[in-house]
Task: inverse folding
């Protein structure tokens, strides 16, 4: 018993100090998950056929402005494959365009966006701790490392880290990622992603205008989250959506709505949903050459 007492006298103070250190680190935010590098590094993943690759890139730049990187042919998956790859940086959002010249390995193509993190292993661990599933474990690519995760409700995202931190210009407006989920999984997704992204719910409208999902006679629930990764609109629906709703993965705020539409159509972009008004916004849905679908919007006074 005296031996146990002496052991307790030695071990317990250490355990108390360790617990206090962990609590302090958690309180300071060091154990609260990965830190986003910035919303300009959240790139929409655009998959198109090689024959449509150049026209898609040209349409994005003509519509939104900005610049494009040099086109490359790379291995961008952990298993054998090859794809044309080009980065498009615009004032309203960033795009990673892929044109696979080989069959696309599963499950690539389902991830909607890539989010740059400061530490990939910490990011994956944090995502898992908040309820995400890792569908592609971390693997190296030409610039760093990547992984693909799935959130409650089925939303797939890529997390990526670069050996040399990229330097993209700040955005003029932050794109709004569109996340479609069922009512059964909405709370689970919002809780998990908000805590992982260190975000804040800025609105939860349980009677948002149904015209935003192609059902003008109905209403639906829309939850908006702001985070260091960017803006996210969680669209809670019954899945009974007319085309093309649900295919658009982001909404881009443009400075001049009419001018943007004119530029888009001149570049061969199709207007799938003609302009309409909702919630002090002018809104339309576009389809770029190759099939990428995106919403654009602008405040009604612009």
Result:
């Amino acid at each position: 018993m005296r031996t146990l007492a002496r052991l307790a006298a030695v071990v317990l103070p250490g355990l108390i100090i360790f617990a206090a250190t962990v609590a302090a680190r958690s309180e300071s935010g060091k154990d609260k998950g990965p830190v986003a590098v910035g919303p300009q590094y959240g790139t929409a993943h655009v998959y198109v056929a090689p024959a449509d690759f150049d026209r898609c890139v040209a349409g994005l730049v003509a519509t939104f402005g900005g610049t494009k990187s040099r086109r490359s042919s790379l291995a961008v998956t952990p298993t054998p494959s090859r794809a044309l790859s080009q980065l498009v940086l615009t004032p309203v959002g960033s795009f990673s365009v892929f044109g696979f010249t080989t069959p696309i390995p599963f499950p690539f193509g389902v991830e909607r966006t890539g989010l740059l993190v400061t530490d990939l292993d910490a990011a994956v661990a944090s995502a898992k701790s908040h309820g995400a599933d890792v569908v592609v474990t971390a693997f190296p690519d030409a610039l760093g490392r990547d992984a693909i995760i799935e959130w409650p409700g089925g939303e797939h995202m890529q997390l990526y880290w670069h050996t040399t931190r990229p330097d993209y210009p700040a955005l003029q407006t932050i794109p709004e990622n569109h996340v479609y989920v069922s009512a059964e999984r909405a709370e689970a997704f919002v809780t998990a992603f908000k805590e992982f992204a260190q975000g804040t719910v800025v609105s939860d409208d349980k009677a948002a205008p149904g015209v935003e999902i192609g059902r003008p006679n109905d209403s639906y629930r829309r939850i908006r989250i702001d985070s260091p990764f960017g803006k996210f609109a969680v669209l809670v629906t019954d899945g009974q959506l007319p085309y093309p709703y649900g295919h658009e993965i982001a909404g881009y705020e443009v400075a001049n709505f009419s001018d943007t539409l004119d530029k888009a159509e001149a570049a061969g972009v199709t207007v799938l949903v003609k302009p309409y008004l909702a919630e002090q916004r002018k809104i339309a849905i576009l389809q770029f050459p190759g099939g990428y679908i995106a919403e654009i919007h602008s405040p009604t006074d612009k």
Notes: The longest strand covers residues 200-209.
